[in-house]
Amino acid sequence: MHLRQLPFNLLLICQILIFVLTGSSEARQQCRLQVHNAQAVLEPPTNPGTGATSTTSSDSMVATGTSSTSSSTPSSTSSSLPAPTPFNYGSDKIRGVNLGGWLVLEPWITPSFFENTGNDNIVDEFTLGQLMDNDAALNMLNNHWNTWITEDDFKAIQAAGLNHVRIPVGYWSVPLTSSDTNTSTSPAPYIPGAWPYLLKALNWARKHSIHVILDLHGAPGSQNGYDNSGQRTDNPVWAVNSANVTRTVDTLRFIAENIGGMVDVVELLNEAAGFRGDDWAAVVRQFWLDGYGAVKQAAGQGIKVMIGDAFLGVNSWTNFLTHPGAQDVLMDFHEYQIFSDLELNRSFDDHVSFACGYMQSLSSYASSNLWTVVGEWSNAVTDCAQWLNGRGVGARWDGTWFPGPTSQVHGSCTNFTGSYQGFSGDYKTFLRRYWEVQVEIGENIQGWVFWTWKAENADEWSYQKGLEGGWIPQDPTNRLYPNICSGS
Ligand SMILES: *[C@@H]1O[C@H](CO)[C@@H](O)[C@H](O)[C@H]1NC(C)=O
Ligand SMILES: *[C@@H]1O[C@H](CO)[C@@H](O)[C@H](O)[C@H]1NC(C)=O
Ligand SMILES: *[C@@H]1O[C@H](CO)[C@@H](O)[C@H](O)[C@H]1NC(C)=O
Ligand SMILES: *[C@@H]1O[C@H](CO)[C@@H](O)[C@H](O)[C@H]1NC(C)=O
């Protein structure tokens, strides 16, 4: 089932491309090249003329193998998509949102998807593939991929003054073939099929002048054991098996080769669990080097590569992948203050001043190491969002945490999460301050990417609902609390 699904999707892409670009059945082996060089053409087959674009782009990232494809696309001058506008990562500020819960499911972002499986033991995409009839699951997934993020979201993101999206994707969605890796290509038990939706999103991003950070969010064996890696487990094995790591590098190479011309930044891996010990940390370190090499070699020097601090703090990565030995590397730092009693204990004011504490340390790191971005942060100050800690798991905040409540109850979750119709005026005022302070920290370095654009029932985590509810301004440079960190 899984294995049959893959070639079908690939073939579909190839057929559309060959039809659009050459009108002939020529060269199936050029298929991948064409996806790469054609700046991703994946409009619906019913309208094959739309979205076909120039292969003579000046984009230096589209460097290899263009000549044969160009010569076979006489219509390439009638491009309907604008040429990419380069983003100046050294000086322009990344202002972005994550497209969370789309191509990688998270129970708390879309609880209804998990409820609709009718099986409480389905807690992530791994168990979805294991425990549900695969045709039924694929139907649900296709419906979700079609509806959770659409072109309208890209329009709204652009209208909100944002210039980037970060798109999480799981390794199982990347259609490696046996010529791309000497490791396994089987996605089992995961259900593949998200790749064409990613290609559509890259098209929309280009069309609406949004830059893309493509974020490998789930690696084989799981890099952290979180449900958002695809598999919730106490025993992630990504780093303990070198075939898993090799496959991850091969996946990144495939991404860079095939869609490197359509993404600005390839993030090698989200939230690798460097805290699991020295062995893990050492594997992560070597993986950053190997992944950097693979992406640069496959996509050319123009592409940017993002690594993460692996929960070790940015200062664990001084003089690492820095210029001139490496080029165009970004550091991703995530800022949350909700996953321990210590943090949940903080008052609103304490949350703001604690955030201000990052201002100095991050900018100091950024000034002598890597361009640094707060690639995930939110407005939440509780862990109250339903299933935030995992499907079926409660919250530390109100003492419903599983497997047992922590020693402390901080309060009721009512009106801290869910619909903002229940949020108090004080809370919304705070949400605006907290949004501003974190934006301020990001603007002080190379930028920020809010987690996340949409969530079904957790408005404190939703950029979209923040705009609607008024605690996020339509113009992200607008400030009610200028110099918010100066006084504290
Ligand atoms: C697979 O192994 C062969 C033989 O060692 C090697 O030439 C090739 O580069 C490997 N492929 C990948 C993708 O690592
Ligand atoms: C990752 O490593 C584990 C542990 O060795 C192995 O059982 C598993 O098959 C690997 N996962 C994948 C997807 O290759
Ligand atoms: C949180 O605050 C309470 C009340 O001041 C205190 O008793 C408790 O020790 C604090 N918890 C942590 C983890 O700091
Ligand atoms: C939560 O908000 C709703 C709607 O404003 C309100 O009716 C309700 O009393 C609030 N509940 C609590 C516990 O504050």
TrEMBL record:
Extent of Low complexity compositional bias: 48-58, 66-82
Xref: InterPro entries: GH (IPR017853), Glyco_hydro_5 (IPR001547), Glycosyl_hydrolase_5 (IPR050386)
Disordered: region residues: 42-84
Keyword presence, Hydrolase: yes
One MF annotation (Gene Ontology) recorded for this entry: beta-glucosidase activity
SUPFAM superfamilies listed in its UniProt record: (Trans)glycosidases
A GO biological process held by the record: glucan catabolic process
GO cellular-component term (any): cell surface
Keyword Protein transport: no
Domain annotation Glycoside hydrolase family: ranges: 137-379
Keywords: Glycosidase, Hydrolase, Signal
Transmembrane segments: none
Signal peptide: 1-27
Protein family: Belongs to the glycosyl hydrolase 5 (cellulase A) family.
Name recorded for this polypeptide: Glycoside hydrolase family 5 protein
